[in-house]
Design goal:
It is a single chain. It contains 12 helices and 5 strands. By secondary structure, it is mostly helical. Among the domains are: about 70 residues, Winged helix-like DNA-binding domain superfamily/Winged helix DNA-binding domain (Arc Repressor Mutant, subunit A), CATH 1.10.10; about 90 residues, Arc Repressor Mutant, subunit A, CATH 1.10.10. The strands form 2 sheets. Strands 3-5-4 form a 3-stranded antiparallel sheet. Strands 1-2 form a two-stranded antiparallel ribbon. β4 and β5 form a beta hairpin.
């Protein structure tokens, strides 16, 4: 076979195999139309499912964001009480209590008592000396005066008692009512004054000053606890002697009989 014949033979061979090797659209349609169509149909059937499964990348709608934020707020609200319970608030520290001193104990006793207490009695209660009691009372009065308090510790009937100052009497009288046992008639006041200034005194001397019988009035004063029998006179018949009591000093705010106003200092009400 000549070269020319071989050439002629080989050309058709290349033309025969060319359609299978080419990748142009025309060849693909001719050579693999059935296979390509089936593959395309299969891909088309699977494409929407794959697109739905893949994330789109788009932002969620406003309704979705609102739903998510509402759920987040609800979760925070439900968790906040638990957080508050887990972390209790710190309470302010209480100030330390001061230890009682001799002065404070004496002050408390005098504030609570309704009768005068002697320095020896206070010393036995506080378990200290009478000198320390007097010094403490002086210190308390100095503090009361510096603070302009309305009361002082005063000596009454041989003891100490906490009393208001005299300048407040007008206001206290409006509040307090006189006790029935301290209400005295003019006759009782006269008799009590005679006994207070002349004690110890017998009944005859009292009646001689007043000019009238005073037996009933004296008994009334004794019943009220303002007058008592202090002894008997060394004269004929040994009559009883009368004097004032400790309650008398308390009622009239006196420390002792020596604190009574002098007779010459008293003002005659009739002469003004």
């Amino acid at each position: 076979m000549t070269d020319e014949n071989r050439t002629v033979e080989t050309v058709p061979f290349e033309e025969d195999i060319a359609p299978s090797a080419q990748t142009d659209d025309g060849v693909e349609e001719e050579g693999g139309s059935a296979v390509e169509s089936e593959a395309r149909q299969e891909v088309a059937s699977q494409g929407p499912a794959e697109e739905m499964s893949e994330p789109s990348g788009e932002e969620p709608s406003e309704s979705a964001r609102e739903d998510g934020s509402a759920e987040g707020r609800t979760a925070v609200q439900e968790a906040s009480p638990a957080a508050e319970d887990a972390e209790p608030e710190e309470q302010p520290a209480q100030p330390p209590e001061q230890a009682p001193t001799v002065e404070s104990v004496i002050e408390a006793i005098l504030f609570a008592t309704d009768e005068p207490l002697t320095d020896s009695r206070l010393a036995s209660i506080v378990e200290t000396s009478a000198k320390q009691v007097r010094e403490s009372i002086d210190n308390l009065n100095a503090k009361y005066e510096a603070n302009n308090n309305a009361f002082r510790v005063e000596q009454i009937a041989g003891g100490y008692q906490m009393l208001t100052l005299n300048i407040y009497n007008s206001w206290l009288k409006k509040m307090l009512r006189a006790r029935s046992d301290t209400k005295l008639s003019p006759a009782a006041l006269e008799t009590l004054a005679i006994i207070a200034y002349k004690q110890p005194v017998i009944r005859a001397d009292i009646e001689a000053v007043r000019g009238v019988a005073g037996g009933e009035v004296i008994r009334s004063l004794m019943y009220k606890g303002l007058v008592k029998i202090v002894g008997r006179a060394e004269i004929l018949g040994r009559p009883m002697l009368y004097g004032t009591t400790k309650k008398f000093l308390e009622v009239f705010g006196l420390n002792s009989i020596k604190d009574l106003p002098k007779a010459e200092e008293l003002k005659n009400p009739d002469r003004g």
